[in-house]
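Before the break, one more example. Copy the sequence into your notebook; we will annotate it together after we see the structure.
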Amino acid sequence: MTEHETTPRHYRIAIIGTGFAGLGMAARLKRAGLSDLVLLERAEDVGGTWRDNTYPGAACDVPSHLYSLSFAPNPGWSRSFSGQREIWEYLRGVAEDEGIRRHIRFGCEVRSCRWDDGGNRWSIRTSGGTITAQFLVSGAGALCEPSLPALPGLDAFGGTVFHSARWDHEHDLTGRDVAVIGTGASAIQFVPQIQPEVGRLHLFQRTPPWIIPRHDRDITRAERWLYRTLPFTQSIARRSIYWGRESYIFGFVKNPNLLKGVEAISRAHMRRQVRDPRLRARLTPDYRAGCKRILLSNDYYPCLERPNVSVVTDGIAEVREKSVVTRDGTEREVDTLIFGTGFHVSDLPIADRIHDAGGVSLTRRWGDDPQALRGTTVAGYPNLFILAGPNTGPGHTSHVFFIESQINYTMAALRHACRNRIDRLDPRPEAQAAYVEQVRRKMRGTVWVTGGCDSWYLNSQGRNVTLWPGFSWEFALQTRRFDPHNYHLRKEGPIRRFPSRAGR
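Here is what the structure looks like once it is written out:
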């Protein structure tokens, strides 16, 4: 399809993105016998976050057996916590094994999606032309658009600047004077990797994270053989990890004082690895563990005591052509700036490109307070399903589990629509409002609200619009079945039946 064609190609379902969400959704649809679908991917390969984040040391902090699609287990994981390359290869394998690649339009960036009320379909304008679809599924996650702070003078900096999610592998760091800005999950992975090669490393820390040991190890050949030969053994391993992670919720949600144990573990970890008491003081958080993301590392603390590393806790006043100046007036000469400042999470980037029939974007509708029924559908935007939507993030377990729960909900909605000859599903505003209020009530008293920190989980009003305030199995139960009474449903227009083998 080109820009000059007059009749756009029409699909039953269009999916944005080919990370865990997009590939998982496509795989479930194809397994149900529905192949009239297209996946729109702006890059030239699948993988999403795990394709793009290639910084040194990139890895997952959720155990491998749990950080995978339940219906596509990988008995060949090499480590208990997988690295970026291995997870990316896993996703590429899913795309091949499930026959998804032939449905993907690579190099096809979604520029605008608008609901056509008269045509009862989504009109999707992309860099490769325009298509239409009856149903639109967004699998564009939150960890796709890097967040850069607005530092005075940054545009005048004469050296090399990049974000960890857009790592410049052509830039040789050997002997460089490097400023790393940010101490989040990415930074604590790449800082130990680059420290031995740089000349000088200035680590600008705004808020120290709570860090606990990373119990990572090689998965033995015998274990991999067992998982391949007796798949139920890997299922047992996955379940044991899952239920162990669920126990964290007692501290995050039920009684934040229980997280004092995590703080004790983190302090002991720091004492073993950091000898300088003044440095330990700068690295010790002043908020409750869990308020921000708890991080895992065995090599971050030791590298901070190396002679070529300095931890800077004074705020940045400005960036000059060859230096960074802090608020106390100290000027540090650098030739490379690396941002480890995370992503746009509470303001989903894809929301700016999805519009209702009147042209109002989700970004404009939401402001900085995104709301969705079951975290998945939005009133006024019919036939739209947002995977990794508002309040569907986990603070304790695998995000893939939540994505699969939303996929289950989307599949249930599509089955209901096809079985009952319904061609439009639009959440009732009152149902959405009641659900959002329920989530907000559950959020009160959680460590994310009462923990005493300012995290990327919160919007400008201090509301947590990112995480799910409870056990993940509770969310799975809420999304197990479709709830037609919460929707305006339209029985108009001939539509094709869902294939007979449509199942979960």
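Residues 399-419 form the longest helix (21 residues). The chain has two domains: 9-46+100-145+344-490, 154-209+247-339. Try to locate both features in your own notes.
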